[in-house]
TrEMBL record, chain A:
Transmembrane segments: 6-25, 32-49, 79-100, 112-128, 134-154, 166-188, 208-233, 245-261, 273-293, 300-326, 338-362, 374-396, 430-452, 473-492, 533-553, 596-618, 630-649, 656-673, 679-700, 712-735, 774-792
Organism expressing this protein natively: Jeotgalibacillus malaysiensis
Full protein name: Cation:proton antiporter
Major place of residence: membrane
InterPro entries according to UniProt: CPA3_Na-H_Antiporter_A, MrpA/MnhA1/PhaAB, MrpA_C/MbhD, MrpA_C/MbhE, ND/Mrp_TM, Proton_antipo_N
Domain NADH:quinone oxidoreductase/Mrp antiporter transmembrane: 129-417
UniProtKB/TrEMBL annotation, chain B:
Protein name: Cation:proton antiporter
Alphabetized Gene3D superfamilies for the sequence: 1.10.287.3510
Membrane topology reported for the UniProt record: Multi-pass membrane protein
Organism: Jeotgalibacillus malaysiensis
Pfam families: Oxidored_q2 (PF00420)
PANTHER family xrefs: ANTIPORTER SUBUNIT MNHC2-RELATED
Membrane-traversing stretches: 6-21, 28-49, 69-92
Cell membrane found in the keyword field: yes
Superkingdom of the source species: Bacteria
Amino acid sequence: MSLLHLAILLPFIAAVFVPFLFKGFRSIHTGWFVLLVPLALFIYFIQYMPVTSSGQTVSQTFEWIPSLGINFTAYVDGLGLLFALLITGIGSLVVLYSIYYLAKEKEALGNFYVYLLMFMGAMLGLVLSDNMIVLYMFWEFTSISSFLLIGYWYDKERSRYGAQKSMLITVFGGLSMLGGIVLLYIMGGTFSIRELIGMSGDLMTEPLFLFAMILILLGAFTKSAQFPFHVWLPDAMEAPTPVSAYLHSATMVKAGIYLVARMSPVFAESGVWLWLVAGFGIFTLFWGSFNAVKQTDLKGILAFSTISQLGLIMSLLGLGAAALHFDTLDENMYMTATIAAVFHLINHATFKGALFMMAGIVDHETGTRDIRKLGGLVNLMPITFTIAIIGSFSMAGLPPFNGFLSKEMFLTGMISVFELDLFNLNTWGILFPVLAWVASVFTFIYSIMLVFKTFLGKPQFDKLPKKPHEAPIGMLISPLVLVSLVIIFGFFPNLLSNSMIKPAVEAILPSLTDAGQEVYVDIYFWHGFQPELFMTLGIILTGTLMYATLAKWQGIYNRIPERFTINGVYDRGLDKSESGSFKLNEVVMTGYMRSYLIYIFAFFVAILLSTMGIRDAFAVDTSNLAEIRIYEVALALVLIAGAITILFAKSRLTSIVLLGVVGYSVALFFVFFRAPDLALTQLVIETVSVALFLLCFYHLPEISRKEERMKFKMGNAVISVLVGVTVTLIGIASFSNSQAFESISQYHIDNVYELAAGGNMVNVILVDFRGFDTLFEICVLGVAALGIYAMVNFRGVRRQKR
Amino acid sequence: MEILMSIVVGVLFTSAVYLILSKSLLRVIIGTALLSHGAHLLLLTMSGLKTGDAPVLMDGVTSYTDPLPQALVLTAIVISFGVTAFFLVLAFRAYQELGTDNMEEMKGNDSND
């Protein structure tokens, strides 16, 4: 266990102490103690920056289940470190923000910080694990802690609904991912991602390769809210705002992005990967931005915007895979796509975190997040307005903020699809720039909406539940730090390029850099009059126009009926699967014993007869048959007649007597078959049984004593005849095949006197050779006797009540 | 003989299954009794019938019937007797408590699932 492992597990360890701190120090907000954890971790992880930027990696192994190849291997490379810094950095800011956001008197802070720390540790473990099983474990930890955080205000119905929805969808994806991991293990024989990357060329040719890829992508798409699994994210907005800012914008939803980036070296050679990742990404980008415009809740807008931006990063990662098909890096413009993805990942975390905090402040200070009630807050909340405008403009992709840079690079990547002569991209690839452009227009519209409708326009303070005023300074620190990062990264993007982006890109596309070539990251504002500049101008112009005429075309959103939305499909699917399984249960589980017996007998017949048919097992061998004498035939006829007459017996008494007839005939058969002990036992037991039956008969209640002939039921008859035929066929066939092995009885016959000093072989077998059977048979009788005694003598509650 | 016995066993099973599927509890128990008769006869038949004398050691006899299935059947008879007796008393108590012996009425209602 190294220091690195301790660092990853530190949030879990800290979480154990949170309840004590919460209970022990009532006067101090628990968040102050918690703040130390991400802060310390951030400082710790900063130290790795020189290591990764020089192209090295750190790997520490802690053996967990070595016999199964499951070890907690902590592995720090550019990509992992980038995420670790995001998690701990934004984690510190979010904890700080939450100290002012959540009141210590009203909220169950102990729970909140335990969940949050659990999430932080899970996220750190996820991004720093090399072993896929450990990665999966942390992955599910994030699902669980996210579930707990969304349902933090568990007395609200919407919170519980959102928590359940996110749980169902992300756990579905997580389990698919586990399937993909297992398939990869079957193909590669290892859980280590680095080892799998090493053999990616061989994996490509495996038949399971495609299944593994799709299953892993299902995990990534559900976690990162890609279409059509994005439906959980808007409902997750019921969580407290610090949670939305942390989990549902900066970290957890990027776990899927991380997974795609991490697994890129394994899968990216395949064209299917490119199409799936880039295709789903670009459509999610469009769909998210399109739907964001119709939202009226600040956090709703931000949720759909997150979906859309995640789609953007995803499509860039998918497109970046094209770089693998080119040999040199100098002219490789698809490298830009990966660089843009990493850059936008950082940018999105900064501005989206700030915007969520802004939404939280507005909610906190005005009492509502509904943009129809808000407006004209600019004079009252100037600092919040500044945060909002910087964050939104960066999100819209306007200069001079960092969003502009990554948006430009994104457009460059999308335009370059035209020149890509791979996997039919030159035909259908036209969709990429078109969708990207349309989505950017919508992004522009909702970004403008977010600022203008909240802070500008006519003040309508009478509609607000609270009298608005500027937030306390503590609440503003974190978003201010984030927006200053937005500006700093905007003006000095190359601060990041060598320290963060380059190592991350090298981790995503290792095969290119291993060949000795260097990734050259240079991000700049002005690249001449290129097509992307005109596209940006077009976006701004069209966006402004469309925003001005918003009221005229907003009606198109109402055209889509509720039942055809993904949400409607999800809700109805859940409803239908519940009512469907209920109905199935109602039909199958009737409560009548007869139905269950029919199932059992029907399966007995179907399985045995079909097996006999398929295996061609029926055989008749007449060579070993014993001879038949006339009185045996007569006895058989008596037995058959007795058994069948019971069915038609009009009274119960007749059937009992007939049962006796059958029993005594069986005893006679035992005589014919030279089994004297059996005959004796059978005679005695049959007599006692019949007496017992008569006893029961005597005690029948008056109503039931109406002796009616059993109603003839065709179904019963068919089933019973089939069972009889099956048994007969099996009997004949198995007797005909019984000569395969010699019987072991000769041993008993030979040794009955020598070893056991007895003459009656059956009795010697019962008490000597196989005495254990007899012991427990005695137990059965004893238990039956005790049971009968208890049943007769102990009267239950029901009797006492009467 | 074995084929004849297989048919007899088949008939016993048929009647047993038919009775078990019926409504009256008493007939269900009669059905189980018939089923055990069928099973016992099947056990004995499958080892071959009348291959020698009764399995009691006697001078001058070289060929005995297989004693092992007989021991098994003996055990089975005793156990099925114990179970049948238990069931009968159970049925008797069920009459007493529930006032019916109709299987269809013993389903309970939806409220006490």
